[in-house]
Write a structure and sequence with these properties.
About 25% of the residues lie in helices and about 25% in strands. It is an alpha/beta fold. It has four domains: about 130 residues, Chitobiase, domain 2; about 375 residues, TIM Barrel (Alpha-Beta Barrel), CATH 3.20.20.80; about 60 residues, Immunoglobulin-like, CATH 2.60.40; about 120 residues, Galactose-binding domain-like (Jelly Rolls, Sandwich). An eight-stranded parallel beta barrel has the order 8-9-13-14-15-16-17-18, surrounded by five helices. Strands 1-7-5-6-4-2-3 form a seven-stranded mixed beta sheet, covered by helices on one side. Helix 1 crosses helix 18, helix 4 packs parallel to helix 6 and helix 8 crosses helix 11. The longest helix is centred in the N-terminal third of the chain and has 20 residues. The N terminus is likely disordered. Ligand TNX binds next to loops.
Length: about 725
C-alpha cells in the first residue's frame, strides 16, 4: 500500500515539477526580477561543454559539480554550449540567463553575478540534479531571465560557539545557503562558551577555549556535561572554508564577541578581567558578567594580536567585534575603570563600552577593516560611521541605527532569529517570538515605518541561528538546525533578494517547485502541521504542503505509522496524532483540540535544595512561572511534587531545566512515582532533564525527581510546573 501510494505521489510531483518548468519564472526562489518564456528547448547532452571567461573557472567547476560536463576556457572558436561571461554593464551581482535552442549563456556583472545565474539555471533543471540522480540528456525550455538583487547584504549568522560544527558541516550549510543566493555568512566564532578560531600568537585561546568539559578550563555547558566537548578551526581549515564559500559567492564575516560574552576568554586569560574583589558567585563557574577590563592596556595589545591575524586570514571588508548585552557591573566595581571614567569625564558606565568600541575599531582600521557591531554598540555612542550595525533587538533599534546614518543590517529577532520555535510545542527559543516561515516573508521596511532616509541606510537582511539548544538535539534522528532554518531561509532570501511579496504567490513557488529541490538536497525542512477536524463521527486531515499524511493511534501497535488516505470513523478522535512528511521534511504533530488540552492539578513542591528568593516555588505551584533553586543539583538531590488529590491522567511530564537554556537541569537522574504518598517506585530515567510518565495504571499522588550527577557548574536548577494530559473519553 505504502509503495503504491508513494509511486502515485512521485508521479504527481513529476507533473507539478514540469508545470512550474513551463511558467516564465520557473518557480525560482528567490523570485527573479524579470523572466520570459521563449519558443523551443535546449538539450543538455553528455557532450555539452561549459566554457568560461578566464577568471570564472571556480564558477564553471561549481556548475560542473551538478552537471557533469567538460569545463573549458572560452576562446574564439569555442563551441560554447553553456557560456559563462562577465558583462561589466550589469549590476554587480546581477545576471542575464539566456536559454535558446543553440545554447545557454550566463552573463554576470561579476563572478558573483554569474554564480547567481548558475543557481537560477540549476533551479530550472529537474530537482534530482541536487541529489546527483539526474541523468543526461536534460531538456530545458527556452527563456530569458534578467535578474539582480534588491539588497547587497543577504546574510546568515551561524553560532558555532555554543554548538561546535565541524568544517564539513559548515561547508554543507554554506552549500545550501548559496542555493538561496545568500552572500554573507557571519560566523559567531567566540562567545562565553567557546573560542573557535586558531590564533597563532596566542594558541591557548583555541586550544583551551575550544573545549568544554569536566577537566577543561571552560566548564561544561549545554547538553554535554560528562565529557570533553568542542573543537576549533585551524587557520588552514578556515582558509579552506573561505575558499569554498567564495566559489559560491559567499563572503565570511568573522565575529569575536567583545567586550561582554567573554567568559571563555576570561577562563583562558584571567588577567583580562577587572581588578576588583570578585564576588563569590564567580567561583561557581560560568558567570555571564565576564567582560574585558576597559582600562587594562594589555587587553588592547592582546586584541591587536588577534585582530592582526583575523584581518590577514579573512578577506572580508568587515570584522564583527560583537558589543551586545554588556553588563557593566564589573566595570562599576573596578577601581581602574572608575579612574578611567573620571579621567575622561564620563558619567555613565555605558560610555566605557563606547570608549572600548572606538579603540578596537581603530585597531581594526589599522588592519584595513571596518567593524561590524551589534546594535547596543551604536546606541548613544561616538561609533565611526564606517561601522556596520547589526540590529537584532527589535525593529526600533534597527530604525534608530539607520536614522543615525549607520549602514544597517536588519535582523530583528522576532522576524529573523531562526532559533525561535515555529509553534508553541516545537523545540527552540521563544524570547523574541514564536513564528513560522510566513513571518519573515511578511517583513517590510515600509510597513515597519522606516522612512525613505532610513531605508537608504539598510544594507540588507540577515537570518540567525544561535545554537544553545542545538547541542541537546544532536542525538535526535533528524538534523535540528535544518528543521529550524528551512524553509525560513527561503523567506529570508525572498525578502533580501526580491524585496518580499505576497504569501500566496511565494508559497505556490515554494510548494510546487522549491520543496522538491530541498527534498533532493536532503534538507529536513519543516512542513506545516496538517489541518485536522472532527465532525459527524469522522476525523479528517489535510495538508496543503503536498506530502503524505501519517497518523498514529495512542495505545495501539506501539505508535505504528499509518498513511492517511480518507476520513477515519472513530468515537475517540483525540487518540489520533497526525503529521505530514515529504522526503526528509516533516511537520509537527496535529490533532483535535482536545488532544492537546491539559489539566492543572493542585500540588505542593518541596526539595532538598533551597528555593531562590526571586524565582520561588510558589510560582511553579500556581503554574505561572518557573522556579529556581539556589545552587546546582548534586547526586542524591530531589524535587518532590505532592498532589492534593491523586491525579488521574494519561500522561505527565516533569521537567528540570528549560529548553531555552538547557543548562540548569539535572542532566542525569530518574523519576519515582507514588500512588499513596509513601511508597515510591522508579518509573523512568531523565532525558535532557525531563521525565515522561505514560499511561499510569493508578492515580499519581506524588512524583520525585532524583539527581544522580553532581557538579555541572551551573548556578541553579530550573524547576517547572508539571504538564498533565487528562484521560481521554
Ligand atoms: C541573544 S543576539 C543573544 C545571544 C543568544 C540569542 C538567542 C545577541 C546579539 N545575543 O547571545 O544566543 O539571543 O536567541
Amino acid at each position: 500500500m505504502a509503495k503504491i501510494f508513494l509511486s502515485i505521489l512521485s508521479l504527481l510531483m513529476l507533473s507539478t515539477a514540469s508545470a512550474s518548468a513551463t511558467t516564465p519564472d520557473g518557480g525560482i526562489v528567490p523570485r527573479p526580477r524579470h523572466a520570459e518564456l521563449r519558443d523551443g528547448v535546449f538539450t543538455i547532452l553528455t557532450t555539452t561543454q561549459i566554457t568560461h571567461y578566464s577568471d570564472l573557472r571556480p564558477s564553471a567547476c561549481y556548475l560542473a559539480e551538478y552537471l557533469p560536463l567538460q569545463v573549458r576556457q572560452y576562446n574564439a572558436d569555442s563551441r560554447g554550449d553553456i557560456v559563462l561571461r562577465i558583462d561589466k554593464n550589469l549590476e554587480k551581482e546581477g545576471y542575464i540567463l539566456d536559454i535558446s535552442p543553440e545554447g545557454i549563456t550566463i552573463d554576470g556583472g561579476s563572478a558573483g553575478g554569474v554564480h547567481n545565474g548558475i543557481v537560477t539555471l540549476l533551479q530550472l533543471l529537474p530537482a534530482k540534479i541536487y541529489s546527483g540522480r539526474q541523468h543526461l540528456p536534460i531538456k530545458i525550455a527556452c527563456r530569458r531571465i534578467e535578474d539582480a538583487p534588491r539588497y547587497a547584504y543577504r546574510g546568515f549568522m551561524l553560532d558555532v560557539a555554543r554548538t561546535w560544527m565541524e568544517a564539513d558541516e559548515v561547508k554543507l550549510f554554506i552549500e545550501r545557503l548559496s542555493h538561496h543566493k545568500i552572500n554573507k555568512l557571519h560566523l559567531h566564532l567566540a562567545d562565553d562558551e567557546a573560542w573557535r578560531i586558531e590564533i597563532l600568537t596566542h594558541p591557548e585561546l583555541a586550544q583551551k577555549g575550544g573545549f568544554r568539559g569536566p577537566e577543561e578550563v571552560v566548564a561544561a555547558r549545554y547538553g554535554a556535561f560528562d565529557r570533553r566537548y568542542g573543537g576549533y578551526y585551524t587557520q588552514d581549515q578556515m582558509r579552506e572554508i573561505i575558499k569554498f564559500a567564495a566559489a559560491r559567492n559567499i563572503e565570511i564575516i568573522p565575529e569575536i564577541d567583545l567586550p561582554g560574552h567573554s567568559h571563555t576568554l576570561a577562563r583562558v586569560r584571567p588577567e583580562i578581567l577587572c581588578r576588583y574583589t570578585p564576588d563569590t558567585n564567580a567561583s561557581l563557574g560560568y558567570d555571564t558578567r565576564d567582560l574585558l577590563c576597559v582600562s587594562r592596556e594589555e587587553n588592547y595589545a592582546l586584541l591587536e594580536d588577534v585582530i592582526a591575524e583575523l584581518a590577514a586570514l579573512f578577506p572580508s571588508e568587515y570584522l564583527h567585534i560583537g558589543g551586545d548585552e554588556v553588563i557593566t557591573s564589573q566595570w562599576q566595581r573596578c577601581p581602574d575603570c572608575q579612574a578611567l571614567m573620571r579621567r575622561k569625564g564620563m558619567s555613565k558606565p555605558t560610555e566605557l563600552q563606547h570608549y572600548f568600541t572606538a579603540r578596537v575599531s581603530a585597531i581594526a582600521a589599522r588592519y584595513g577593516k571596518r567593524v561590524g557591531v551589534w546594535n547596543e554598540a551604536s546606541e548613544g555612542s561616538t561609533l565611526s560611521k564606517d561601522a556596520l550595525v547589526y540590529g537584532w533587538k527589535d525593529v526600533a533599534t534597527c530604525r534608530k541605527a539607520a536614522a543615525k546614518g549607520f549602514e544597517t543590517v536588519v535582523m530583528p529577532g522576532a522576524w529573523f532569529y531562526f532559533d525561535m520555535r515555529q509553534s508553541a510545542d516545537e523545540a527552540g527559543h521563544d524570547w523574541a517570538a514564536i513564528f513560522d516561515v510566513k513571518k519573515p516573508l511578511s517583513f517590510s521596511l515600509q510597513a515597519q515605518g522606516f522612512t525613505a532616509e532610513e531605508m537608504q541606510n539598510v544594507a540588507g537582511f540577515e537570518g540567525a541561528f544561535f545554537s544553545e539548544v542545538y547541542l541537546s538535539h544532536r542525538d535526535y534522528d533528524y538534523n535540528y538546525i535544518y528543521h529550524l532554518t528551512y524553509p525560513r531561509i527561503c523567506a529570508l532570501s525572498e525578502v533580501a533578494w526580491a524585496g518580499g511579496g505576497s504569501w500566496e504567490e511565494f508559497y505556490s513557488r515554494l510548494r510546487d517547485s522549491h520543496y522538491g529541490r530541498m527534498e533532493a538536497m536532503g534538507i529536513e525542512f519543516r512542513l506545516f502541521p496538517p489541518k485536522v477536524s472532527y465532525s459527524d463521527g469522522q476525523l479528517t486531515a489535510s495538508s496543503s504542503d503536498g506530502g503524505t499524511i501519517y497518523y498514529t493511534i495512542d495505545g495501539e501497535n506501539q505508535g505504528e505509522h499509518h498513511i492517511y488516505t480518507s476520513p477515519i470513523k472513530t468515537t475517540t478522535p483525540a487518540r489520533y496524532a497526525f503529521h505530514t512528511r515529504r522526503g526528509p521534511a516533516f511537520s509537527p504533530e496535529a490533532g483535535v483540540k482536545e488532544r492537546f488540552s491539559q489539566i492543572r492539578p493542585k500540588f505542593t513542591l518541596t526539595s532538598s535544595m533551597t528555593e531562590s528568593e526571586r524565582y520561588k516555588f510558589s510560582g511553579v505551584e500556581s503554574y505561572s512561572r518557573v522556579g529556581r533553586t539556589t545552587r546546582a543539583g548534586k547526586q542524591g538531590d530531589w524535587i518532590l511534587y505532592t498532589f492534593d488529590e491523586a491525579v488521574k491522567c494519561r500522561r505527565m511530564l516533569i521537567r528540570t531545566g528549560n529548553v531555552q537554556t538547557p543548562r540548569y537541569l539535572f542532566e542525569a537522574g530518574y523519576l519515582e512515582v507514588s500512588h499513596d504518598g509513601k511508597n515510591f517506585t522508579r518509573v523512568c530515567d531523565l532525558d535532557h532533564g525531563c521525565g515522561l510518565i505514560e499511561n499510569p495504571t493508578q492515580p499519581i499522588k506524588a512524583v520525585r525527581v532524583v539527581c544522580t550527577q553532581s557538579g555541572n557548574g551551573a548556578r541553579f536548577v530550573t524547576v517547572q510546573s508539571p504538564k498533565v494530559w487528562p484521560i481521554l473519553k
